[in-house]
Structure formats: C-alpha cells, structure tokens
Amino acid sequence: MAILMGGTTLMAMAQNEGEKPFKGYLYNKEYAVFLRMNFYEQNISIPGQELYGPLPGYLGKDRYTFYWPIVTAEVKDGKAILTMVNDYGSEDLTAQLTQVNDSVFELKQLEGSTLKMPENRKWQKLPKVLELKRK
Question: Coil, strand, or helix at residue 70?
C-alpha cells in the first residue's frame, strides 16, 4: 500500500510539473548559470535582495551574487516572453524562454542589452541562445 501511495505521489508531482513547465530550476553547466522561476505565481525572492519583493524569477551564476531579475514574464503557447534587468538597474533586455522538451529549455535574447555574468573579475557574455536543463 505504501509503495502504491508513493508512486501515486511521484506521478502527481511529475504531472503537476508538466502542467507548469515554467516553474522550477534550470541549469547550464557550461556557463554555470541557473534560472529560478515561477512564472505562474510570480513569488520568487532573490537571496539577499528581498528588497525587490516577489518576482517571476531570476538568472544567476554559481559562486556569485550578481543576478538578472526577471521583472515580467508572460507565458503563451509553450513560450515565455521575459523582461530582465541587471541588479544594478543599468541594463535591461527582452528574452524568450521556450520549452524544447520535458527537461530542455532555450533562452533566446531578443532585444536590449547583452546578458553578461561575472567570471574571474571580468564580464562574460552569454550566447544569444542558451540551452538550460531542468535539474
């Protein structure tokens, strides 16, 4: 009985994730960047920067506290259009996040500034199209 209940719970969780693909944690190993998002409830807080309040999400990098907050996210037809701003407020951009399959997403910069993240005391430009995987 316990095994049956556990299996049912896992199936419900997987089904819920499928219904809300733009909620969760995505990662790109090559650039060590991640995207934490909940485009539905828009209730994500940036660690140490709660001053911004609840947001749809943010893009961050391992070992750094520099973030690109997502200030707007509109989900439509398996895609999300995002407005992002760096945490200094000096640069902004529009991007599109597309679900390729259950675990792979593609973040494409459409217009505005270029996504840059700190790397060894320099700014590292991210590619215009970045593949992110669900963790």
Answer: strand
